[in-house]
Amino acid sequence: MTHRVLRPIIWAALALCCATDALAQQPDPWERQLTAFDAADKATPPAAGEVLFVGSSSIEGWDLSRYFPDLKTINRGISGSELDDTVRLADRLVVPYSPRVVVVYAGDNDIAAGEAPEQVATEFEQLVGHLHSKLPQTRIVFIGLKPSILRWEQVERMRAANALIRDYSAHDNLVAYIDVDHAMLGTDEKPRPDLFVTDGLHLNSDGYQLWSSMVRPLLK
């Protein structure tokens, strides 16, 4: 092979290496939130064995001290995050706290981004496997993907993901699935407007009260 032929190949390889290095050096998109969590832990180190909530904005917006004043809870929700983020960041968001229970709400944004229900279910299985490899006695509670006004057109895909996760959870005594779907529907079988803020996606105080009443029995 001549130098003239080799030269484009070498340049292409160098360009690929540079692109890979640049990607590896990019900060995590959630680094600001992660840094804030680190600072909070340093200021007030949480004890092991508490109840940890992790996932997307529905978790971040949950005022845990209001709805669970009798329990020691930690909120590590990140608005805009997806279930694959929870899996990828589990060693930073979950494992250091050694919680006795982890409550997860994530996957809503994954479906909205076009991810297949099977992929969401696979990511949850990956999360369970990883957490139980590090925290074999920790119970994992998954809140099923909610029906919402804003994302009503995607509800069947969310229900398909829920069904797969529910079936998987049924075979593990340390994994529980909470079905919030039917409880959040009105007599017209559509999402109840009284449970949402004006964006039709995020929960209001009544929505969180409903969720809290359904989650509480699994936190004792």
Blueprint of the fold:
Blueprint: H1 3-25, H2 31-43, E1 51-55, H3 57-60, H4 64-67, E2 73-77, H5 83-88, H6 90-93, E3 101-105, H7 108-112, H8 117-134, E4 139-143, H9 155-169, E5 175-178, H10 205-215
Explain how this protein is built.
This protein has a single domain (46-218), classed as Rossmann fold (3-Layer(aba) Sandwich). Helix 8 (117-134) runs parallel beside helix 9 (155-169). Helix 9 (155-169) links the parallel strand 4 and strand 5 (175-178). Helices cover 47% and strands 11% of the residues. It has helices spanning 3-25, 31-43, 57-60, 64-67, 83-88, 90-93, 108-112, 117-134, 155-169, 205-215; strands at 51-55, 73-77, 101-105, 139-143, 175-178. It is globular and about 50 Å long.
